[in-house]
Amino acid sequence: MRFRHPDGTTVHLAYCTNVHPAETLDGVLTQLRDHCEPVRRRLGRDRLGIGLWLAKDAAHALVTDPSALRKLRTELDRRGLEVVTLNGFPYEGFGAEEVKYRVYKPDWADPERLDHTTALARVLAGLLPDDVTDGTISTLPLAWRTAYDAERAETSRTALRTLGERLDAIEELTGRSIRVGLEPEPGCVVETTRDAIAPLTAIGHDRIGICVDTCHLATSFEDPHTAFDALTGARVPVVKSQLSAALHAEHPHLPEVRHALAAFAEPRFLHQTRTATAAGLRATDDLDEALAGHALPDASPWRAHFHVPLHAAPAAPLTSTLPVLKSALTRLVGGPAPLTRHLEVETYTWQALPPELRPRSRTQLAEGIAAELALARDLLTELGLKELP
User: Which of 271, 269, 296, 164 is nearest to 215 (CA)?
Assistant: First the structure.
């Protein structure tokens, strides 16, 4: 979906296909048919943006076989879909029964991460619509925080500088500008937007910036206005933003609230949980750890890294951090010029919701994703953007 900002800029809105995990190119093509096109039709759109997630094997097939890339591009066009952004965070296995810490491997100190992201950039340059010259990719925020020492930090910086040089070369070769954004996430080396400023300044390449995920922003209790002021002051580019909402519990000391939270503690994904105290942020790596005993203080609200559907906050006594998303969006595209032109709804946890909230069919999933996009569309138009055909 495309929107015209009052300054004349085109802002793109997509939804991320990591909600339909597939490891191979054939699987990606099936996604387009079974999920992405039905969402487009449900929205009544001739064209729908998708943020593709391409696992290692799919990316390798596309970058080594020009005919495979042409086939994917043709299929996108045929189904009324377009791609301006990729999710390059998960490497493989995102559809596994247990993902948890595996999603952080390989990290930016491992050569595989540089090779994979380079492949994604080359693929994206070939997938961009004919009238679009700029593409974006979100990526791992350096590494999970453990086992990350000074040597691995320097290796990561070197890899990202190399990536910047390769992105320069891609533009020289294709005329397409691809930028990559580190996506701060709780528990990682770069957990917050503020954590991103020093390493990105050290890398010093304008094609390497930040991807702001509004669920992660909220989980870490970051104030959007403070965060964007700091990024703007440090001249860190907001490459893209993922529009998502975290799980919020206002009164975690109450038994009924803990009972409600326990329904969201599940074995597939990591749900880092945070609370803001007078002494600073307190944290656990997962929601079940927070609920066990007194691992996390419960005098103040808790937020958990669980991407809940934008249009459907959990039932009381829980809610979502949709207000944080709205505040962030106001700063991202509500000013005289947009801070970013690529927005991506990223609720990948539909099938990890408590059983009674999960979609029971492809049709129900398409309805849910379309409802999220409709909500995001309405927020954008309320900020003065005009939806384009």
Answer: 271
